[in-house]
Specification:
mainly beta, 4-stranded mixed β-sheet
Length: 292
């Protein structure tokens, strides 16, 4: 930038076109301090113009790296001017030691409107990225435990910024996500995370994760999942299968089958049956003779 930039707020009018002032303060205007002031990337906004005033609720975040004379102390200054053209009265809201190869993040959420924000090092310059945005948070309802057989379920989450959130499964072998729709894949613990990347007005939200259990169905309520139950529609907690046919005793179809422990039916030779029939016939004829 070729324009000389003074530390006096009122002088900045001649630099607006070059600096590209944002309509909202979320764009943080970069007004480099003069080299002799030991300041690096000082940020200002003018008074008496609502477009350039930081509002309560915005969070100022300065990230410092690469000090030219480490260790140094990074500072975040916040204040207001009494009038246009009057230097701001500032307060040292936050500071931290910045060493060689290190990083310092200074952050402050405004509780009232301000016209000045500055970030500087005590001794020399360094690299700083300063952002002026609003924090956002994610609300993610705890999903209920699911069964594989339940199929798709819509999960519920949102950001207080109103921006759309993104769902992702961190356990794709157990559950998958397509938008807000969760599909059970296998039994186990499903973990889903929700994020929001932010935009020009909002910082990225801290992601929120929820876990829940996916099991198989137990239709008869006997404590054995349908996938393993040898009689899934009739309760048989013992899973007894006497004839080892793969079907539990409670579900075997024969009324007098071995699974029901019925007494065996004795077998009779055919010749005995014929003899019995002849004897019964003779007995009937003998009785008729006696009755004459």
């Amino acid at each position: 930038m070729t324009c000389f930039r003074s530390a006096v707020v009122g002088f900045l009018a001649s630099c607006w076109a070059t600096d590209g002032w944002a309509v909202r303060s979320t764009g943080c205007q970069d007004i480099d301090g003069a080299a002799f002031t030991n300041k690096s990337d000082v940020y200002y906004q003018q008074i008496n113009n609502a477009r350039y005033v930081w509002g309560a609720g915005e969070t100022i975040r300065a990230t410092w790296t690469n000090p030219t004379n480490p260790p140094d102390t990074a500072r975040l200054l916040i204040g207001s001017s009494a009038a246009s053209g009057t230097p701001a009265s500032t307060t040292d809201f936050d500071n931290a030691v910045l060493g060689a190869g290190g990083t310092v993040v200074l952050e402050h959420t405004l509780t009232q409107a301000r016209t000045y924000v500055g970030s500087e090092l005590d001794v020399q310059n360094g690299d700083v990225v300063l952002a002026c945005k609003v924090l956002q948070t994610i609300a993610f309802n705890q999903p209920a435990d699911q069964k594989v057989q339940d199929g798709n379920t819509n999960l519920v989450a949102s950001s207080n910024s109103g921006l759309a959130v993104t769902f992702a499964s961190t356990t794709p072998g157990v559950c998958s996500m397509a938008g807000a729709t969760m599909t059970p894949v296998a039994t186990g613990t499903c973990m889903v995370s929700v994020s929001q990347a932010g935009n020009g007005d909002y910082y990225p939200a801290i992601s929120v994760s929820r876990t829940f259990t996916i099991t198989n169905a137990d239709s008869d309520g006997d404590g054995t999942d349908d996938g393993s139950d040898n009689c899934p529609l009739i309760a048989n907690a013992d899973q007894l299968d006497t004839d080892t046919d793969g079907t539990g005793d409670a579900c075997d179809s024969s009324v007098f089958g071995a699974d029901q422990h019925a007494l065996p039916v004795p077998t009779v030779p055919t010749s005995w049956l014929i003899l019995g029939a002849v004897l019964l016939a003779l007995q009937g004829g003998f009785r008729r003779q006696l009755n004459r």
